[in-house]
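Quick one:
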Amino acid sequence: MPQVDTHCPYCALQCGMSLDGARVTPRDFPVNAGGLCQKGWTSGSLLTGPKRLTTPMLRVNGALEPVSWDFALDFVARKLQAIRAEHGPDGVAIFGGGGLTNEKAYLLGKFARVALGTSQIDYNGRWCMSSAAAAGIKAFGADRGMPFPVTDLKSADVVLLAGANPAETMPPFTQHLRGTDLIVVDPRRTPTAELAGLHLAPAPGTDLALALGILHAVVEGGHLDQSYVDDRTSGFGEMWRIAASWWPERAERVTGVSAADMRLAAEKLAGARNAYVLTARGTEQHATGTATVGAWINLALSLGLPGRKGSGYGCLTGQGNGQGGREHGQKADQLPGYRKLDDPAAREYVAGVWGVDAAGLPGPGRSATELLEALGQENGPKALMVFGSNVVVSAPRSQRVQDRLASLDFLVVADFVLSETAALADVVLPVTQWAEEDGTLTNLEGRILLRRKALTPPPGVRSDLDVLTGLAHRLGQPENRFPADAETVFEELRIASKGGIADYSGVSYDRLRAGEALHWPVPAEDHPGTPRMFLDAFAHPDGRARFVPVEHTGPAELPDDEFPLQATTGRVLQHYQSGAQTRLIDELNEVVPEAFVEVHPDTAKRAGLEEGDRALVRSRRGETVARVRFTQSLKPDLVFLPFHFPGEQRANLFTNPALDPVSRMPEFKVCAVSLSTVDGAA
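Output:
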C-alpha cells in the first residue's frame, strides 16, 4: 500500500505520523508539530512482531488450541445463549477499552444492550478519566478533557500542571509549554517538574488541601475575579465557606508545601494575562478524585480562566481514545452522544435509532472495579467478554481480579497479542490493530481524527467490528442492525449522537479525509466544529459554571507501624498502560525490562537494601517484587513503582481499590506499604 497519513496508536495526544508499510515517519500535525516520542517512533514494530495472534483459539484440556472462525463464533454464541438462559441477560458482561475506536466503542455498547440485553458493561477508562469527567460535568455541564486546542497553550504566560507528567507520558506535548512560567504539582521530582519554575511537592493524597490553600491565597491577596464570578458562575459563597478556613499556613501543615510557595503560585496565576490550570491522573486516581479535580476547577474559576480565549481549565486525557471511548456507550451509565442511560428521553431517542423498544434497554450497570469484583459471584456475571483491555495487569487488586476471572464459567478475549488476560481465556479471538483498519478517535482536545488503514492485516485476523457483527447475527439480530464496516457504523453513530452533549452529527469521513479540524460538538454538516467551548456560556441550563464545595479528607489509607511508607504508581517514558504492546518492542524493553521501585537511599538502607537489589513492596492487600532504584529527590517516606509489568512485578497487586463515591475511580495513587528484602520478608 502507498504511504498513508495516520495517527499514533498510544496516548490521547494522537500524534500525526505517516506509515510506509511498517516504517514510521513523523508528520507535521498541530499536537506534535513533527515530533514523536520513543513509543511513537517504534510503533511500527507492533505491526510485524512475531507474537501476533492470527487464528482463533479454544481452550481444550487446559491448553489453547487453534480453531476456525466459524467454529469459534458458533461456540461463543452457544455459550452466551446458554448462560443467558440460565442466569438472565446480566449473566454476561462486557469489558471495553479506552483505546478502541469510536466505532468499536459505539457498537460494543449497542451489542451489550441490544444483542445481549445486559446492563453489565464498563471499560478501563473508568480508571483513567472518570473523576475529571464527573468534576467537569458538575462544574461546566459537559466533559471535554481540554475544551480548547493544545496549541492555545503556547500563548500562555503561566501554566499550572497538577498530577501530570507529560515529559514522560506524552513528550511532544511539552513543546507547547515552552516559554511559559510552569508550575508543577507532584509529590515526585519528575522530568516534568524539572522543567518547572515552581515545583510544589505535596504529600500524596493532599492535592485537594493544596488547591484550597492556593485558592485562599488568591482571595486574601485580592486576586479574585469578582466580575467573572458574578457574571458567569454560581455557588461561590457555599464553596468559600469551606475554603475560607484553608489559609495557606493550615494547608502547609497538611501538604508539606510552604505557605509562601502557595502564595507565589497564586500571584503567578493572577498576574498572568493568559493562564491555564491542567490536571491529570495524579489528581484523579484517589478515593476523593472528583472532589480534588473540583478543587482545581474552583481555583481556575476564581481567577476567571474557563471560557476565556487564551486561558482555561483542562484535563490531559490518557488513553488514545479516552475521550471518545466514554462518549458513545461503553460506560456503565452512558448512551451515545454522552447521553445518560437513565434519562427517559435519551433512551427513547437512541432506541429509535437502533430500531428497538426503549423499555427493553437495560438500566445502568456496575462500574469497572465493581463489575470485576462481581464476576462469578452468586449475583454476578458468569461470562465476560473483554475487548481492548488487559485487566490482569491494569486493574486494582489484580490478583483478586485474576481469581475472579478464574471463577467464571466462560471468558472470551479479543486481542492481537496473547496478553496476560487473553492467556486465561476460554476463547481468544485475533483482531486487527491500529494500522490495519479505518476508524475514528477523539483526542485530548476533543478533535475527531480519522486513523486510516495503512496495511492489510495478516490472513485469519478480523476486526472487532467483524466479531461483534458475527456474534450479533448468531444471537438472532437482524442482518443490518450490526454493520461491520467502520464508515457505516460511524454514519449511525452520527445519528445516535445528534442532540447529545457530544454531538458528532455534522462529522463525516469525507470531511475528515479532507483534513478538516473538527472538535465536537459539530451539530450540522456545515458547522465548523467547536475548538473552544464555553466562550459564550457554559453547558448548564443557565449558562453559568458552578463552584462546587469540596473538603479535604486525605487518603483512604494512612501509614502505620506495619506499613510505614506511602507508595504511588505511574508510567515511564518507554512503556504504555499494562505494557502488553510496548513490552514486545525490543528497543523499549531493553531500556526498562522489569519493574523497579524508586526509593530514597536512606529509606532503602534502613530496609537492608542496596541499589539494584530486588525488594518486596507489601501492602494490606498483596505484595510485588521490584528492582531498587535510588532517587535522592524522593521523599524518605515515599516509594514509586511503574504499573506496566506482569506476574509478581504487578504494582496493582498492592494498590488500594477504595473507590471515589461519584466517579467510582480506585485510589491507585497512594497506599500504605512496607519495604524489605525479598528473602527477609515475612
